[in-house]
Amino acid sequence: MSVVPARSWGVLAVLCGAIFLEGIDVAMLNVALPSIRADLGLSTGMLSGVVSAYVLGYGGFMLLGGRVADLLGRRRVFLFFLGVFLLFSGLGGFAEEGWVLLVARFVTGVAAAFMTPAGLSLITTTFPEGRQRNQALLIYAGTAAGGFALGLVIGGLLTAFGWRWVFFAPVLFSAALLVAAIPLLKETTRPSSARGFDLAGALSVTGAMMLLVYGVVRLEHPANGWPLTVAVFAGGFALLAAFVAIERRSASPLVRLGIMRSGPLVRANIMAALLTASFFGFQFLVTLYLQELRGWSTIQTGLALLAAAADVILAPTLTPWLVNRFGNAKVVLAGLLSGLLAYALFIGVGLDWTYAAMLPSMLLIGLMFALVYGPLTIVATDGIAEHEQGLAGGLINTSFQFGAALGLSVVTAVNVAALGAATGQEAGLAALRTALIVPLTATLLGAIVAAVGLRARTRTADRVPVNAAT
Fold first, then answer.
1. Picking from 366-370, 439-443, 458-462, which range would have the lowest pLDDT averaged per residue?
2. Cβ partners under 8 Å of residue 334, min gap 6
């Protein structure tokens, strides 16, 4: 087995820092929203727009970002957009009006959309395929998930000093990362020529993803202008169809459509969307339960969800051993089944539950993320040619992001519909229990896809390596 140079682990540390930054940035803002509204006097629509602007930028440009990293150079794209992330996060901290926050969050989301797949492809092209790459990806995935969980706690603490620190803290962190990244990161492969860049494909897929993500966000309030919501989805699917037609005819396509013939890659992306749909939907509902129905503070809520960050420890320790012993397919299925049990246990939540009653679900969710997030990232990039690693990274991260937006929107819509005009804690609890069916169903569907993949893997075990199937 080849020995990986020490510098490669330094590269991994920088890239893990970047994905951790992206995770805590999102989580910290969610905690600070009430303080931002109170200080700037924002309407509910404007406040929702601050969150949606980031999602639109991130989800809309992720696929383009991955391919641009392949074409123009992963190091170049990563460093440039880390700098953009730094500047516009700082702009958000100085905002005095809502529109400034909207611009800052949208551009920050776009920066993350280019930075994230570039960082992932730097890992997959720095570490040789096999155990070393698998371990690096599992550490990376655990760090990403830990950022989402720890961001709630850190955001609560920073908001206590002032909500602007939720924007300024990422500036300091990203500046430190930039200083470390410049000497450490090297271009792992020669960038392709930008001549022949598929501009029509880039515009159509970016427009399609932005419209589809916006449509998903609008699902949070389905009765609010449903003709526009239908029109947005129709436009998104029309642009997606146009994108496919363009790619079929393009001499240098933005996305080689043949990559989608890989069964493991397609299944990995479906499960990625279902995983984050369940997790972020559940996290949102638990936040409502603890703060609105139980009266817990933001810091108490963050600490309560901290147990779900157990994957930070499990992902780099337990998961590699299990993957090497049983393969990705079985590990992913076991993780989804643990999540299914977690959500099933929480559906019986009551207004008098102690934290001890909630803890099993939190720990099982942490186990789910540890066993699913990293292995899915491995499967989605395993066996993909080096010149398409950015594209594969963009696909899996688009699925993660799209799933998160979908999960949040659907649980919000179900919760609002179930609550109706009713008021009071009992009505709120009943609506929340109904909405908990959404993450439960998403995880069940993910487990079914995993089981289908496991069956397919068993049938082709004599022809396909264990780590390339799920």
1. 458-462
2. 322, 371
Segment of 13-17, 25-29, 225-229 carrying the highest mean pLDDT: 13-17
Give the Cα separation of 59 and 85 in Å (integer). 15
Check residues 203 and 122 and name the one with the higher pLDDT. Answer: 122
DSSP for residue 349: -
**Distance from the Cα of residue 374 to its chain's centroid:** 12
Q: Can you tell me the distance from the alpha carbon of 215 to that of 416, in angstroms, rounded to the nearest whole number?
A: 17
Among the listed residues 52, 58, 55, the one whose alpha carbon sits nearest the alpha carbon of residue 84: 58
Question: Which amino acid is present at 434?
Answer: T
Structure token digits, residue 158: 């920073």
Backbone angles phi, psi at 210, to 5 degrees: -65, -40
Q: Which of 52, 176, 178 is nearest to 115 (CA)?
A: 178
- Helix then strand then coil, in percent of the chain rounded to 5, is 85, 0, 15
What letter does residue 95 receive in the DSSP assignment? -
Residue 467 has pLDDT above 80, yes or no: no
Is the pTM higher than 0.70? The answer reads yes
Does residue 206 sit in helix, strand or coil? Answer: helix
- Measured CA to CA, the distance from residue 407 to residue 343 in angstroms comes to 14
DSSP state of 80: H
Where do we find the tokens 């990403």? Answer: 144
Of residues 189 and 144, more confidence is placed in 144
